[in-house]
Amino acid sequence: MENNFLKWILTFCMFYAVSGEGCSLEIKPSRVVVRFGEPVSVTCEASRPVRVLGWESAIGAAHTQQDLAVHWRVDSLIDWIEEPICYGVFFTAPRQCEEKLNLILYKTPDSVSISSVNHTGPMLEGKEYQLLCEVQNIAPVQYLTLRWYRGQTEVYTHSFSDLTPTSPVQVSSILLVTPSVIDDGTQYRCVAELDLGPEGPQTPPTVTSEPLNLSVLYTPAFISPKPETFVLGEGNEVTFNCTATGNPAPVYSWQTSQPQENMGDQPLFTSSSVLPGTYTCTASNKLGKRSKQFIVTTKSNGI
Q1: In DSSP terms, which residues pair with 283 in a beta bridge?
Q2: Closest CA to 271 of 262, 280, 284
Q3: Is the Cα dihedral 124, 126, 130, 133 positive or negative?
Q4: What is the pLDDT of residues 10-51, one digit of tens each?
């Protein structure tokens, strides 16, 4: 008899219960953040005499008669569609009401990875590329923020607040880059951060990708590209520094309008027997070449 009565009460509550203002039920805490697989315990309290007080739930359903509090407990929460509802059937109007628990079940991603889209190997200076960050099995995605970093500097933030799935999903983000000389050897990475609000972990859970190291191909560039002038004195030794950066590493060649010993193929040339004139160094690789001049003069009369 009692079981039939309870079944009737539950059915009646599902169709006729009211919620919100005027409902004499309070859930403590009202918002719960639970990591996937961990336990959860919530209390529902009635503020006036109640005939039946209970939890409608796929897991952990419970009820009590005339007690002013009832607990909802789960040892290991793994149900992504769980929506516990506390209901009450009272002796006075309003005779039925319900409150839904604000439950957030979350899961950190299985993996976060970063790659270059449709490209492998070194990148060309000045060409646009796409970097892809992929996040596997994260929930709920609407609390996810993806942060892109170049070295230690955050360069882009991607949020997913417009999405609504509660169960784990896979999402991705694209970053457009146009590498320059200074990007050679730079690391890019992305960080998945779940900000679950004040009821969640004090420090938002994060998962960081392995870094993506950029190798950038670029034409040679001199540390000091302007022509240099040397004034010869008796017995003076001069050093021409033609050092350049480049990827691939540059090779060097020298030219001069004056008869001179072989100047070799190194970026540094030192001699105490150079003649006045113009000496040109060329640094080159497969992408291009750059030249720099060294001008040698003699002391003017009277100096």
Answers
A1: 252, 290
A2: 262
A3: positive
A4: 444 444 445 555 689 999 999 999 999 999 999 999 999 999
Q: What is the pLDDT of residue 145?
A: 97
At 121, the amino acid letter reads G
Q: CB-side exposure of 91: number of CA atoms within 13 Å?
A: 9
The length of the chain in residues reads 303
**Pairing between β-strand 50-56 and β-strand 85-90 as defined by DSSP bridges:** antiparallel
Strand 96-100 to 187-194 pairing: unpaired
| Segments in 181-301 forming alpha helices (H) | none
Lowest mean pLDDT among 2-16, 55-69, 98-112, 177-191: 2-16
Interstrand relation of 96-100 and 85-90 (parallel, antiparallel or unpaired):
antiparallel
* pLDDT for residue 262: 76
Please give the structure tokens belonging to residue 174: 């694209």
Token code pair at residue 117:
């889209």
Mean pLDDT for the chain? 89
Which one-letter DSSP state was computed for residue 30?
S
Per DSSP, the three-state class of 4 is helix
CA distance 285 to 283: 7
Cα gap 262→228, rounded to integer Å = 21
Question: Are 256 and 240 spatial neighbours (Cβ–Cβ below 8 Å)?
Answer: no
